[in-house]
Amino acid sequence: MDQTIENPAQSPDGLLVVGQVDSDGDNAPHGFPSMIPPIVATVLFPPVGLVSLVNAVRYRRSVREGKPAVAQALRARNWATYAFGAALTTLIVVAVAAFLLLNDHAVLRAYFDLDALSKSIPDIAGAFVSNLTVSITAEIGIVIWGLVLAVGRSLPGRAYLPIRLIVVGYIDLFRALPGLLTILLIGFGLPATGIGFFATMSLYQTGAIALIVVYGAYVAEIFRGAIDAIPSGQLAAARSLGFGYFGAMRHIILPQAIRSTLPSLLNWYISVLKDTSLLSVLGLVEGLTTARIQVTFMSNLSPLVGVSLCFLVVTLPLSRLTDYIIMRSARKRQGKA
Amino acid sequence: MSFVRLEHVGKTYGPINVLNDLNLRVDKHEVVCLIGPSGCGKSTMLRCVNGLESIQTGAVFVGDLEVSSPIVDMNAVRRRVGMVFQHFNLFPHMTAIENVMVAQRRVLGRDKGAARDIAFRLLSRVGLSKKVDKYPEALSGGEQQRVAIARTLAMSPQALLLDEITSALDPELVGEVLEIVRELANEGMTMLLATHEMSFAREVATRVCFVADGAIYEEGPAAKILSDPDRPKTQAFLRRLVESHRL
Q1: Which residue ranges make up each domain of chain B?
Q2: Of the candidates B51, B89, B138, which has its C-beta nearest A233's C-beta?
Q3: Run of H or E including B148
Q4: What tens digit of pLDDT does each residue of B89-136 get?
Q5: CATH class of B4-88+159-243
Q6: Could you read off the pLDDT of A138-151 as tens digits, one per residue?
């Protein structure tokens, strides 16, 4: 930091520090800002870097004439940073493009063969509807089951201790097992029980149940965290108004808890949707299975890109929606809606 | 017959005696102020009266209901005595009027229109007719506390427990809340309030109780207790207040 003290016009990175008032009381910074960043910027990315360089030169001249133009010094610094940014972006774009075009466009053709893509997409999209149906059915079940588990784990008093222990055991167990394993156990296990109700279930139903069993455990923990985060005064206020424990939960605590988990729930839905592709191990014909069949037929990976697009069409807007919901609820509660 | 009675009440948190052979009676239309240093048990007393805290020994009665009995209908107790909290505890996901409506609808089973009418009348009464659709976050502390009072009054309680309801407020907002309590007192509402506002206690209280070590240490008319108490701890407490310019 000695450098700053000897020469207050320069920050340690050699760039100009503005707004320093010297002993004479005028606003002129001491010395020159370093010329190195504008010069490097010009070398790296001339179109933008030159603007920086010109401004830096003008600033030096204005200082020599005794009328330092601080605005130009600032412009020199800003355009130097733009030049670095532009250079880095260009580098990344060029690297990706080079990879795609390498070996006579082999990579590009392997992934983005438009012909293969357009031929395979209708089948894939048709099969992807299965992913959507199963995931939406499962998500509804997951939210309900997660809530039941979370409330079970939050039950007060000694009487409910066994229930709390069972719930904790369940949550620990299914979070500890790989999801694929649980799907195999339930997907093949339920029909094999020979119990009429389970034996006649479709792959959709057993698949959805497997997802509910696995993800219910995760979502229960989210709900429990949200319930715990509600200040204890809320329950006290509800009880003092005459609500019973479950009434207070239903009308006061859970609505707040669920609201605060909505963004996490949407994120978990994205995970559930992605994991519907695991149900292919049960024999469910879904988007990814179809795409893999097409890959074998066409000796080209484009169908996989096709099914990727199907997932992205759903998941990317959901991410945006999540942000929007967070923003809107924040604004609404501040009374600006 | 007193409306609220605490008889030989004892309560411990582990090794700590919070309430210690405490006796208190509050008659209908009485306004009893509890004063005393922080942690002396004022809040715990109030919370025992509507069953938010359990007690280990003694008995608490509200009217003919024994709150401390294991078979009491606690919801019936809580319909009789409303409580207002230091930190308001409004439901943040509901607007002011929804806060006042929710228990009327879900606990008393009033239909939506009736609940809304009552809520609007009560919010107007506490001076918030223009803010019924605001969320708590958009209200000042004083406004939030007034909504909380309206929410409690909507249950038509026969008595109110007020737990340091102005302690969390900025000084300039205290007056608007106390004004409402003053009106309630004039209308004959039975109230038991823990407070640090000595001048207010002097004005509204029919009786002031000084609480120390989990029991009523000295009680009497406000003028007597707040000006010329007989016992040493009360005198010391008042002296400290005078020194810190709070009396």
Answers
A1: 4-88+159-243
A2: B89
A3: helix B141-153
A4: 999 999 999 999 999 999 999 999 999 999 999 999 999 999 999 999
A5: alpha beta
A6: 999 999 999 999 99
